[in-house]
């Protein structure tokens, strides 16, 4: 199925957004008037480290990864943004350069609204900023939990946690279990959990032998969410 600009009901997408759900319909219409839709290709960036942005963004389709990168090119993936994830709220408050990359891993339609439109409505409806803050708090909590896991937990726990998180956010129920829709290499998974590809490969082979995590149509399928969660507990003992 071909996706085009006409495939999206922008007003409904905005009305469902966590920052705008408590605004009146007239505000949703005003935001929609100021919205633009862009198709970004694989390896494009919604924005990059050091870039100054003046808009907020909503990921509508595709695969976009939030990450930080070292000067040597090493990547630490924070999260993969799911459908109708919003980003770029920092631009509502300051002009400082961005400190993370939003890297398009698979062609993505992105909705973009200039901050002048958003802040004008925020002046009329200050409640909006409360909802933005609540969203930031929840996102920060996820980052803190991720950092704690990366620093304190063994690789098997980190890998299981990443797979479970992706299954929860974007997983699709199939006959074999829960499929993660993104096609990811072992190197991708290694970057997600800060491990070597060789060690990740060894863990995945172990799980495949147990029929716990299997490959179907070049995608990972978790056959039992409960059993994979137990892997976190077992590897922490």
Automatic annotation (TrEMBL):
**Residue span(s) of domain HTH crp-type:** 153-226
Q: Which UniProt keywords apply?
A: DNA-binding, Transcription, Transcription regulation
Listed PROSITE patterns: CNMP_BINDING_3, HTH_CRP_2
Name the domain of life this protein comes from. Bacteria
The UniProt entry, under Gene3D superfamilies, shows: Jelly Rolls (2.60.120.10), Winged helix-like DNA-binding domain superfamily/Winged helix DNA-binding domain (1.10.10.10)
Q: Where is the Cyclic nucleotide-binding domain?
A: 19-121
Record's SUPFAM superfamilies?
cAMP-binding domain-like, Winged helix' DNA-binding domain
Coiled coil, from the record: none
Asked whether the keyword Metal-binding is assigned, the reply is: no
Q: What is this protein called?
A: Crp/Fnr family transcriptional regulator
């Amino acid at each position: 199925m071909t996706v085009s600009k006409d495939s999206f009901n922008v007003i409904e997408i905005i009305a469902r957004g966590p920052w705008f759900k408590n605004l009146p319909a007239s505000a949703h219409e005003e935001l929609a008037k100021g919205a633009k839709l862009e198709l970004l290709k694989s390896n494009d960036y919604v924005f990059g480290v050091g870039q100054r942005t003046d808009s907020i963004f909503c990921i509508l389709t595709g695969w976009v990864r939030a990450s930080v990168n070292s000067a040597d090119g090493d990547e630490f993936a924070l999260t993969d943004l799911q459908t109708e994830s919003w980003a770029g709220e920092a631009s509502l408050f300051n002009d400082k350069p961005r400190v993370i990359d939003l890297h398009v891993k698979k062609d993505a339609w992105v909705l973009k609204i200039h901050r002048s439109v958003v802040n004008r409505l925020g002046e009329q409806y200050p409640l909006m900023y409360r909802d933005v803050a609540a969203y930031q708090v929840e996102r920060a909590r996820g980052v803190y939990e991720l950092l704690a896991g990366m620093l304190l937990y063994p690789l098997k726990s980190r890998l299981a946690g990443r797979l479970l998180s992706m299954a929860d956010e974007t997983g699709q129920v199939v006959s074999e279990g829960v499929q993660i829709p993104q096609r990811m290499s072992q190197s991708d998974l290694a970057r997600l959990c800060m491990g070597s590809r060789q060690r990740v490969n060894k863990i995945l082979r172990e799980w495949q032998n147990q029929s716990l995590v299997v490959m179907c149509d070049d995608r990972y399928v978790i056959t039992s969410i409960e059993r994979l969660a137990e892997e976190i507990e077992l590897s922490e003992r």
